[in-house]
Amino acid sequence: METLPNCPECNSDYTYEDGSLLVCPECAHEWSPFAEAESTDAEKIIRDANGTPLKDGDAVTVIKDLKVKGSSSTLKIGTKVKSIRLVDGDHDIDCKIDGFGAMKLKSEFVKKA
């Protein structure tokens, strides 16, 4: 009998196959067994709003006025951000902005400067 991998979400060992997907009955997470192999082989490429690949240390410019959560101020269009750091997650850019401090931005709201 073939041993199936544990669920990546809840680590349950009761996973089962449903067509080409693996399913966890405890948390209802579905995933492809081939996606795991692809994600470990290829590094995720983060792109700006224009599709240009970004890397650590790049300078970017904000392309849209952004409301800052927990503050009454907004980050204005055209604000230049230097020395970005790419991180995993929904907000994939970690940076420091003069006048605002440390912040996380989404790559879809910036363009490479």
What's the β-strand tally? 11
First-last Cα distance: 55 Å
Structural category is mainly beta
How much helix is in the residues?
Answer: under 10%
Rg result:
19 Å
Whole-number mean pLDDT: 87
| Biggest sheet details | 3 strands, antiparallel
DSSP strand (E) fraction? 25-35%
Order of strands in the sheet with most strands: 1-2-3
Number of helices: 1
Give the overall shape, derived from the CA principal axes: elongated
Which H/E pattern describes the elements?
Answer: EEEHEEEEEEEE
Stretches with pLDDT under 50, minimum 5 residues: none
How would you describe this structure to a colleague?
The chain is mainly β and 113 residues long. It is 8% helix and 28% strand. The strands form four sheets. A three-stranded antiparallel beta sheet has the order 1-2-3, with no helix packed on it. A three-stranded antiparallel beta sheet has the order 7-4-11, with no helix packed on it. Strands 8-9-10 form a three-stranded antiparallel beta sheet, with no helix packed on it. It is elongated, with a radius of gyration of 19 Å. The protein starts with 15 loop residues before the first strand and ends with a strand.
